[in-house]
């Protein structure tokens, strides 16, 4: 496994629409393993194809799990391929989101509380799930990446303006 180079704001690849994964090939398995390594090595809870320069509809998530001692711990990484989200709940919730492509920037994002997902796992099986809470949140964030959407597109103008100096700093650090 290898750690891949992260793409950060405002790399144009983060704004492109990713294409479906055609089949689970050894190359896709290797990509998924490298993405897991990259995400875990960066202490992330999610990582999507475009963030490592691959315009493919694949992302990795780590759900949180309740441990025996009552604390939340990170669950095992899961590979989500060609997801389709549907039936978002009318109830929306606000949660703070960070992003490996927007290092150090944390913004409140309002999204549906519950959503349905259909996706392919690394074995090539289709899986359907109703998602709630943290799992729904991470999945919606990563799915946005497949469509070229970032957290800063989902905040109001005032918040976006507040984030501007931070965005400029990221740009300067990684793209100058
Ligand atoms: Zn992100």
Describe this structure in words.
The chain has 176 residues and is α+β, with helices and mostly antiparallel strands. It has a single domain (12-175), classed as Peptide deformylase (Peptide Deformylase). It is built from 3 helices and 7 strands; from the N terminus they run αβββββββαα. It has helices at 26-41, 133-146, 157-175, and strands spanning 46-48, 58-66, 72-86, 92-97, 107-112, 114-120, 126-132. It is globular. The protein binds zinc ion. Zinc ion binds at residues 99-101, 141, 145.
SSE inventory with pairings:
Layout: H1 26-41, E1 46-48, E2 58-66, E3 72-86, E4 92-97, E5 107-112, E6 114-120, E7 126-132, H2 133-146, H3 157-175
Antiparallel strand pairs: 1-2, 2-3, 3-6, 4-5, 6-7
The structure holds zinc ion.
Zinc ion binds next to helix 2.
Briefly, what is this?
The protein contains three helices and seven strands; from the N terminus they run αβββββββαα. The protein has 176 residues and is of the alpha+beta class.
List key phrases describing it:
Peptide Deformylase; binds zinc ion; single chain; 7 strands; about 180 residues; five-stranded antiparallel sheet; two-stranded antiparallel ribbon; alpha+beta; 3 helices
Q: Give a quick account of the main beta sheet: strands, pairing sense, barrel closure.
A: 5 strands, antiparallel
Say how many strands there are: 7
CATH class membership: Alpha Beta
What is the strand arrangement across the widest sheet?
Answer: 1-2-3-6-7
The CA-CA distance between the termini, in Å, is 29 Å
Shape: globular
Continuous helix count: 3
- Summing up helix and strand content along with how strands pair, one would put the structural category as alpha+beta
Contiguous runs where pLDDT drops below 50 for at least 5 residues: none
